[in-house]
Amino acid sequence: DVTEIEEEEAQAKQEEQIMKEQELSNLLHEKRYLKALGLAISLDRPHTVLTVVKAILKEPEGRRHLEENIVRLRKDQKEAVLAFLVTWNTNSRNCHEAQAVMETLLKHEAPDSLLQFSGIKSAVEALLPYT
Description:
Layout: H1 3-29, H2 33-42, H3 46-58, H4 62-71, H5 75-89, H6 95-108, H7 111-115, H8 120-127
Helix pairs in contact: 1-2, 2-3, 3-4, 3-5, 4-6, 5-6, 5-8
């Protein structure tokens, strides 16, 4: 019977998730946005990523700070953010943040590198009607 082992693994995963969420909260409070973005992306939490982006944009020089943080993300993280911003862009409350992130990606990524992103074709098709 492996039920007990599976329950322990589930408990450990849940505890790890709680620890990561607490760490994310601390990072936001400390205004360590790059780490907060990376952690929110790794947790696959689009709304939390949006919250981090909004917090960055509220800062003085917010656009510049957003650019600095987005540029420093890894390629896989940028792909995840692109997928998230497609959803954000469909809502008028979040479209400005989505457009700011998209502008940064378009400005700092070469067209050839953007074409290498997974899901770029569907993302562009979804962005066009709302942009």
